[in-house]
Structure formats: C-alpha cells, structure tokens
Amino acid sequence: MKVGIIGATGYAGGELVRLLMGHPQAEIVWYGSRSYIDKKYYEVFQNMFQIVDSKCLDDNMEELAAQADVIFTATPQGFCASIINEEILSKVKVVDLSADFRIKDVKVYEEWYKITHKSPQFIDEAVYGLCEINREDVKKARLVANPGCYPTCSTLSIYPMVKEGLIHPNTIIIDAKSGTSGAGRGAKVDNLYCEVNENMKAYGVSTHRHTPEIEEQLGYAAGEKVVLNFTPHLAPMNRGILVTAYASLKKEVTYDEVKAVYDKYYGTEKFVRVLDEDVCPQTKWVEGSNYVDVNFKLDFRTNRIIMMGAMDNLVKGAAGQAVQNMNLMFGLEESMGLCQAPMFP
Ligand SMILES: NC(=O)C1=CN([C@@H]2O[C@H](COP(=O)(O)OP(=O)(O)OC[C@H]3O[C@@H](n4cnc5c(N)ncnc54)[C@H](OP(=O)(O)O)[C@@H]3O)[C@@H](O)[C@H]2O)C=CC1
Ligand SMILES: CC(=O)N[C@@H](CCC(=O)OP(=O)(O)O)C(=O)O
C-alpha cells in the first residue's frame, strides 16, 4: 500500500513514519512538509538517519492522490478541510489527524476552533475513527476523522459506564494530563524547557476545544446530550496522557459488576487493557505503544466512581490510532504494524 503523509515533519507525522517503517504492507511515497521542502527527511529528524533517505515534498494533494492509496494529514486545524475535494476522495482514502471532521455540528466546530470550516459538505460522511467503538463504519469509510488525544483516552475510560447507564453523564468531571509532545513541534514560549520542567499547570480551563468532542462521543453512548467539565494539564514529560474522571453512580454497584461491564466492552479488544483490581494506569506502562490502560475505583463514601486511563498521545492518541484506522479501511489485520510492547522504563 502506498502511503502519503502531509505534515510528516511534525511530531504526529514523525510518529507515523516510525510506525509505518515497521508495517509490512505500507510503503511511504510522500514525506510532506511546508518548511523543509527538498531537504532530506533525516535532516529534519536525525533518528531517521540511514533509515529514510527521501526528500520532503510539498502538499500537492492532487499529485499525491495520483500516487498513493491512502493519505494521512497530520497538519494544523483547518488544513485538511481546505484541501479535500470529491476528486481526491474518489482516488484515495484519507485519515485526518486534525479535528476538522470530528465534530458533526459545524457551528460547534467553528465556535470552539475559531475558524471557518472550508468543507462542511464532507462532515456527515466522515467517520469518527475511535476503532473500538466505530469499527464497522471505519471499514467502509473514505474519510476518517482520527480522534483527539485527550478524547481518545477520556472516552475509552468512561464509555462503558455511560453506555450501560450506570452513571449520571452530566456529573462527569475529567482531569487530564499530557506530555509536551501533545502541543506539537512548533516553538512556543509555554513549552520551553524552563516553563515545563519541574512544573505542572492547567490550561484551557473550561474552554479547551476537546470538550465538545468528548461530550459528543459520550452523548452518543448516553443517548442524550452530555455536558461535562474537562481540565487538561501540561506535565513535564515527553509523551503520555493520564485521565482521572469522576462521576456519580445512578445505583449501588459492586466491583465485580463494574468489572464485568468493562470486560464486556474491552475483554476482546487488543489495545484496551482493563487492569487488575487496584492497579492504577501509568503513562510509563504504555509509552511507545498503541495500548490504552483503563481501570476504575468505586468510592462508596461519596457514591462516585473514579475512572482512569493512560496512553501515549503520539501512538494511540494520534499516529497509532491512524494506522489502526488505515488497517481497518483496507481490510488488513487491525493490529498490523502496531504490536510493539510498551517501553519501560
Ligand atoms: N501531537 C499530538 O500528540 C497530537 C496531535 N494531533 C493533531 O495532529 C496534527 C499535527 O500535530 P503535531 O504533529 O503535534 O503538530 P506539529 O506542529 O508538530 O506539526 C505540524 C505539521 O504540519 C505541517 N504544516 C504546518 N502548517 C502547514 C501548512 N499550512 N500546510 C502544510 N503543512 C503544514 C508542518 O510542516 P513543517 O514542519 O514542514 O512546517 C508539520 O509537519 C494537529 O492537527 C494536531 O492537533 C492529534 C492528536 C495528538
Ligand atoms: C499538551 C497539548 O498542548 N496538547 C494539545 C492537544 C493536541 C491534540 O491532540 O490536538 P487535536 O487532538 O485537537 O488534534 C492541546 O491541548 O491543544
């Protein structure tokens, strides 16, 4: 399968290259860039020295669509929507890592992202690529909206409880932490070493753009509109997302009952691991892998449940999930190229 990556010189694009190098059916034919056109790819990422000798190319989607079977857009918000058209989609499948096609209500997208959507006509068709939940639709898709990093970890951690109607969805509070690679490779003062190292800070409090994405996905599970609190924090680590979410229980439940619910949804899932009782997910246990570790704790004193999740933002939160989607779209084994065990320590 011939693969083109627009935004191959970013963190998510770089991770796509790393994963696809180990994919037995994929050959990268286009290393797309905006700032490094004609430079060798390994000059941008020296970890690819003597591994990738190709040059970076521009973002000519028409030419790329003629050469590739699948295109990944690992580009800023608004880019994919600005270049997609019917001709491209008739020739090639597209997995967009940005948020352009994740939110079904274009007004909500424009309000939270502060940009005008350039291709609203494709929003309905796009499939939200949370593989464990939308697998059958992904298999038939031409255009997949790869979920956001926080929404992947948050939704998978909470989904079984909402779907089974065991919690009041409007009491959900999500506290999340991310490593700095989640912010991309672009230079920003907030992400300088001295600002991040030995420091923890909340950001986007009550305004983070992943809020409506999580609300929409949990809303489908609940069968009703969901409104929740989501607070992200920047953590002094390269990779990883940790979610701790709280919600009120609708009725008394036992550990075994809730464990059975998580096993019902994830027992046969390769990439979602429901940990043993009292084991809390850690970012280090999933680093470099496509796994999401989830678990929960019942707090009988407050009649609330605490739901936890950990994953690597660049793998299951971006490039790994994008490859998982590609595998489904092309009828390949879903885990192909994604079986790396997590790195530790
Ligand atoms: N980092 C993460 O953990 C996650 C990221 N995402 C999403 O993936 C996308 C990429 O993120 P990330 O890799 O972190 O960002 P980076 O800033 O690291 O990379 C952005 C990439 O897009 C390219 N680019 C920027 N502007 C343009 C443009 N106008 N035309 C064409 N290419 C352009 C850059 O090219 P160049 O360097 O050559 O200028 C670079 O390759 C974003 O939509 C992000 O929200 C989703 C989930 C997780
Ligand atoms: C640490 C950090 O800054 N993280 C980014 C999330 C990046 C991301 O995943 O963006 P999309 O999912 O929307 O494409 C942020 O909070 O904006």
What's this model, at a glance?
The chain has 345 residues and is α/β, with parallel strands linked by helices. The protein contains twelve helices and 14 strands.
Structure characterization notes:
The protein has 345 residues and is an alpha/beta fold. The chain is 32% helix and 19% strand. The longest helix is centred in the middle third of the chain and has 15 residues. It is globular and about 60 Å long. The relative contact order is 0.15. The protein binds NADPH dihydro-nicotinamide-adenine-dinucleotide phosphate and N-acetyl-L-glutamyl 5-phosphate. NADPH dihydro-nicotinamide-adenine-dinucleotide phosphate binds next to helix 1 and helix 12. This is N-acetyl-gamma-glutamyl-phosphate reductase. Keywords: Oxidoreductase.
- CATH class category of the largest domain: Alpha Beta
How are the strands of the largest sheet arranged? 3-2-1-4-5-7-6
Q: What percent of residues adopt helix (DSSP H or I)?
A: 25-40%
Q: Which structural class do you get from the secondary structure elements?
A: alpha/beta
Ranges where pLDDT stays below 50 over 5 or more residues in a row are none
User: Mean pLDDT score, rounded?
Assistant: 98
Bound molecules: NADPH dihydro-nicotinamide-adenine-dinucleotide phosphate, N-acetyl-L-glutamyl 5-phosphate
One letter per element, helices H and strands E, the order comes to EHEHEHEHHEHEHEHEHEHEEHEEEH
Count the strands? Answer: 14
In CATH, the topology of the largest domain is named Dihydrodipicolinate Reductase, domain 2
The description of the largest β-sheet is: 7 strands, parallel
What is the CATH homology-level superfamily of the largest domain?
A: Dihydrodipicolinate Reductase, domain 2
Distance between the termini: 34 Å
Strand content: 15-25%
| Number of helical stretches of at least 4 residues | 12
Protein name: N-acetyl-gamma-glutamyl-phosphate reductase
Enzyme class: oxidoreductase
EC number: 1.2.1.38
Keywords: Oxidoreductase
